[in-house]
């Protein structure tokens, strides 16, 4: 198993809370990854998260075509008692800064652009201060959907194709708008009924989450939480393909085989949902022009097309083909925790 390049665990000088920065790999360039502030029963669970997510980020960055490796930062908060958020963020910034540019961090669960601005008071190695990742993520999702539609139906045209978008949050709303504007027939759902306005504003059809999941459509687009695709839900699907940004869509890697056996094309979320990371890293770290960044995001479609072709040629799942491609790009075999999904 490829060992992490460097893992730092420190007690925050101001907050006293454990701060973990895991740098998995800098083989392709400086490592990038999210900064997670979360409550853990035991801080070592936060360390596990950092180790797992930084390894997965190495695959994500490689598949995104970025000259970067993977990292992850975790501040393990206590479940009770006051939290001086600013103090925690400054502790995080000092640990990141002490690594001298080996890694940069951006928004993740529990953090947003405002928090990145606070980190930026003490280190330059910060991404995503300006926000805007959800629009970039959605643009990448649509590029991926075009590749999926081309693979399944022979043309990337979205007009006249049908979509079910599950989750009308920040990314899902943009995706619904883009698909509807391209002439797609769109069904949308969310557990939050107030999100019904997303459908009303662009002529999409609102439905309940279960009906959305099992709708007879060309592409199901998971844009809510993870764990959607399981041995229980896959038999109920009536779509030709699944392509969405939701992280950890598969409850376990073997579910990709169930989808494959049912003839449903599943596009790995690590590729489909990479537009936001590409935008943040290419803009903030590599200072690329907006046109170059947009081209990189549109390139998600080409990457996915290559993965789907490789899967077909080798009679394997797209998940397995993506895993092989990531290993080739990184130049070393992937550990199970790095398998892209
Ligand atoms: N924001 C990004 O740039 C980005 C990038 C890559 C991946 N992702 C992933 O994409 C997904 C959506 O991200 P987001 O930023 O739009 O999140 P969000 O929190 O803004 O939206 C998620 C939406 O899903 C809804 N939801 C939750 N559970 C649901 C369920 N069981 N059925 C239907 N709807 C449900 C919520 O009510 C919410 O409106 C997440 O899994 C996220 O990890 C996001």
From TrEMBL:
The species this protein was found in: Actinoplanes philippinensis
Similarity comment: family membership: Belongs to the Glu/Leu/Phe/Val dehydrogenases family.
Domain Glutamate/phenylalanine/leucine/valine/L-tryptophan dehydrogenase C-terminal: 130-333
Gene3D superfamilies: Leucine Dehydrogenase, chain A, domain 1 (3.40.50.10860), NAD(P)-binding Rossmann-like Domain (3.40.50.720)
Pfam families from the UniProt entry: ELFV_dehydrog, ELFV_dehydrog_N
Superkingdom classification of source: Bacteria
Protein's UniProt name: Leucine dehydrogenase
Tagged with keyword ATP-binding: no
SMART domains referenced in this protein's UniProt entry, alphabetically: ELFV_dehydrog (SM00839)
Keywords of this entry: NAD, Nucleotide-binding, Oxidoreductase
A GO BP annotation: amino acid metabolic process
PROSITE patterns registered for this protein in UniProt: PROKAR_LIPOPROTEIN (PS51257)
One MF annotation (Gene Ontology) recorded for this entry: oxidoreductase activity, acting on the CH-NH2 group of donors, NAD or NADP as acceptor
Residues binding NAD(+), per UniProt: 167-172
């Amino acid at each position: 198993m490829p060992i992490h390049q460097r893992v730092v665990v420190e007690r925050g000088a101001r907050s006293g809370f454990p701060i973990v920065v895991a740098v998995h790999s800098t083989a392709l360039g400086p490592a990038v990854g999210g900064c997670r502030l979360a409550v853990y029963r035991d801080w070592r669970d936060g360390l596990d998260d950092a180790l797992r997510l930084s390894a997965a980020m190495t695959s994500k960055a490689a598949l995104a075509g970025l000259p970067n490796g993977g990292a992850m930062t975790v501040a393990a908060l206590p479940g009770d008692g006051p939290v001086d958020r600013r103090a925690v963020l400054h502790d995080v910034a000092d640990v990141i800064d002490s690594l001298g540019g080996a890694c940069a961090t951006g928004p993740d669960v529990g953090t947003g652009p405002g928090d990145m601005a606070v980190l930026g008071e003490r280190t330059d190695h910060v991404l995503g201060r300006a926000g805007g990742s959800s629009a970039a993520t959605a643009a990448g999702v649509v590029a991926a959907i075009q590749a999926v539609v081309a693979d399944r139906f022979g043309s990337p045209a979205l007009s006249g194709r049908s979509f079910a978008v599950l989750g009308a949050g920040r990314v899902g709303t943009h995706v619904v708008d883009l698909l509807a504007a391209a002439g797609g027939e769109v069904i949308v759902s969310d557990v939050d009924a107030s999100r019904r306005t997303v459908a009303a504003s662009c002529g999409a059809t609102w439905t309940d989450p279960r009906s959305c999941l099992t709708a007879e459509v060309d592409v199901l687009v998971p844009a809510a939480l993870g764990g959607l695709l399981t041995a229980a839900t896959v038999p109920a699907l009536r779509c030709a393909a699944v392509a969405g940004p939701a992280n950890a869509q598969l409850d376990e890697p073997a579910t990709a085989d169930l989808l494959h056996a049912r003839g449903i094309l599943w596009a790995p979320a690590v590729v489909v949902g990479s537009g936001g990371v590409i935008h943040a890293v290419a803009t903030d770290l590599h200072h690329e022009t907006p046109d170059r960044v947009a081209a990189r995001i549109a390139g998600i479609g080409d990457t996915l097309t290559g993965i789907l072709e490789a899967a077909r040629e080798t009679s394997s799942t797209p998940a397995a083909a993506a895993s092989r491609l990531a290993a080739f790009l990184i130049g070393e075999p992937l550990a199970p925790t790095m398998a892209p999904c």
